[in-house]
Amino acid sequence: MLRHEAVALRADGASVDRRVYSSAVMADLSPVNYSIDLDDQCLRPAPGRALVQQLRPRQWVKNLACLAGVIFSGRLLVPEHLLQAGLAVASYSAASSAIYIFNDFCDREKDRRNPRTASRPLASGTLPLWLAGLAFATLLGFASASALALGTGCVLTLASYAILNISYSLRLKQAVIADVMCIALGFVLRVLYGVYAVGVLPTAWIILCMFFLALFLGFGKRKAELAALGEDSVNARPVLQKYSLAFLDLMLAISATLTIVCYALFTVVPSRNPTLILTIVPVVYCMTRYLLQIMVHTQGESPDGVLLTDWRMGVGILSWLGLCVAILYGNIHLIAPLTT
To answer: How big is the CA angle at 138 (ends 214 and 125), to the nearest 5 degrees?
Structure first.
C-alpha cells in the first residue's frame, strides 16, 4: 500500500509532527496523527566530527614553519631530508592538537559560560571525555616517538613546547604581554624543530626574525579581539582588559619593523646568497597587507584565517617562497656579497 508522509518541525527543533497517510486514507482525507519526541543528542554532531573539530586542523598551517629548515639549508631536493621535514610537520601538528585538547579540557567550564566558546566540542559535550583522552594520548605518543626518531634536538624542542603551552594554559594566558610572548616562542620552537629535524643548526637571524614575526601576529590578534569584542572582552578573554588599542598599535609598529630588519639582515649574512635580498619585496608587501587587514578591516583575530582567505596575501607568500627556492636552488647570483 502506498504511504505518504507530511512532516512539520517545531520551531525549536525539539519534536516532529508526522502525519502518515495510506492511499485509502488519502481518498477520504482522514489523516492518522502521531508525534515523535527527538532527544537532543540526535541534533548533536557525531563524536568523530567533534573530534576533528577539536583537533583544529586549520591551525596546522602554522606548522609549515617547520619547513624553514629544509628550505633554507639547501636540502629541499634531498629525499631523506624532505621526509624528515614532512615528519616534523606531521608530529608537530599532532603535538599542537594534543595541546588544544588539554587547553580546552582545562577551560571547558569557563567556555560553557561564554557564547563565543560554548560550542567547542568539550565545552558543549559533543566530544566525550574518554575519546578526548584517548586522542590526547595517541597524538602525544606519535609526536614523542617521531621526535625521538628525529634526534635529541627535536626531543628537547618538543618538550619545551609542551612545557610552554601547559604553562600558558594554566597561568600565563592571564598575564599581559607574557601571553603574546608565549605565542611568539611557540613559533620559534616550530622553526627550531624543523631545523633540528634535518640535522642543521639555526642562525641567530632566522630565530630573531621568526620571534618578531610571531610577536607581530600575536599583538595583531589581541588588537583584533579587543576591537571586535569591546565591552565583552573581559568575559571572552580576561587578559584583554589589560591592553589598550593605542599600546597594541605601538607594539604592532615595533614588531613589524624589527621583523623586516631582521629578515633583511638574515638575507645578507656572509654565508647566504646576497641575491636573497630581493625576497624582501614580497615580505614587506605581506607585512603591510596584514597590517591593512588588522588596522583597517579589523581582521587578524584568527591569523590562519587571514592567511587562508586573503588571496592577495597568498600570492605574496607564494611569490616569496618561489623567489627563495629559485635563488637558492637555481644558484642565481645577481648581487655582490657584502665586503668588510
So the answer is: 80
